[in-house]
């Protein structure tokens, strides 16, 4: 079998993809660089050589997740530049559930001084982008994010999305309240 050597950019992307999976499963505190390395099929020292630390790997992963969410919203805005248009993109985001879960873990870890600024910047960039794409007011954007956070949490709990659990009565009641 002939092995193709990956470029540095391809290897970086491979490691971040593995980190998305690992951090979505275990969060920041519960994930090791060894777990990421095993998922990527590389050695743990290689992960550290590329990123320097678990913290930098996590930050790269959060940035990747945030950039992917922003790209999905940009694509949606090209078709329908309204909050409703961006809201419809949540179906795609739920299909890429690990991205949303990584962002939730980032928000939860934001009290860590080494993570907080970057996580808040990621959130702020998303807020600003939604306003720029849609022309929505700060209040309308806040409501969009409030609904989006609810959808994100429901997706993380597998109440929504392609791998949703069988619904319980409370789920149906709550889901009926979401914007269509």
Helix content: over 70%
How many β-strand stretches? 0
**Chain-averaged pLDDT:** 92
The major β-sheet equals: none
Counted by DSSP, the helix tally is: 10
Shape: globular
Q: What's the name of the CATH homologous superfamily? A: Tetracycline Repressor, domain 2
Strand content: under 5%
Low-confidence stretches: none
CA gyration radius, whole angstroms: 18 Å
Describe, in plain words, how this protein is organized in 3D.
The protein is mainly α and 180 residues long. It has one domain: Tetracycline Repressor, domain 2. Helix content is 72%, strand content 0%. The chain contains ten helices and no strands. Helix 1 crosses helix 2 and helix 1 packs across helix 7. The longest helix has 26 residues. It is globular, with a radius of gyration of 18 Å. It comes from Actinoplanes philippinensis. GO terms for molecular function: DNA-binding transcription factor activity; transcription cis-regulatory region binding. Keywords: DNA-binding. This is Regulatory protein, tetR family.
Looking at this protein, list some descriptive labels.
single chain, 180 residues, mainly alpha, Tetracycline Repressor, domain 2, 10 helices, 0% strand, globular, Regulatory protein, tetR family, DNA-binding
């Amino acid at each position: 079998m002939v092995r193709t050597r990956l470029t540095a950019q391809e290897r970086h992307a491979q490691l971040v993809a593995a980190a998305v999976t690992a951090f979505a499963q275990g969060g920041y505190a519960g994930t090791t660089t060894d777990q990421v390395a095993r998922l990527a099929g590389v050695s743990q020292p290689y992960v550290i050589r590329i990123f320097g630390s678990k913290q930098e790997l996590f930050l790269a992963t959060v940035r990747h997740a945030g950039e992917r969410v922003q790209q999905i919203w940009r694509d949606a805005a090209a078709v329908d530049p309204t909050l409703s248009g961006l809201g419809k993109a949540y179906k795609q985001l739920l299909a890429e559930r690990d991205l949303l879960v990584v962002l939730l873990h980032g928000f939860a870890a934001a009290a860590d001084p080494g993570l907080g600024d970057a996580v808040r910047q990621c959130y702020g960039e998303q807020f600003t982008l939604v306003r720029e794409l849609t022309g929505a007011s700060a209040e309308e954007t806040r409501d969009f994010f409030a609904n989006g956070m609810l959808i994100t949490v429901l997706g993380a709990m597998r109440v929504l999305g392609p791998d949703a659990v069988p619904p319980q009565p409370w789920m149906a009641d709550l889901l009926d309240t979401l914007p269509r």
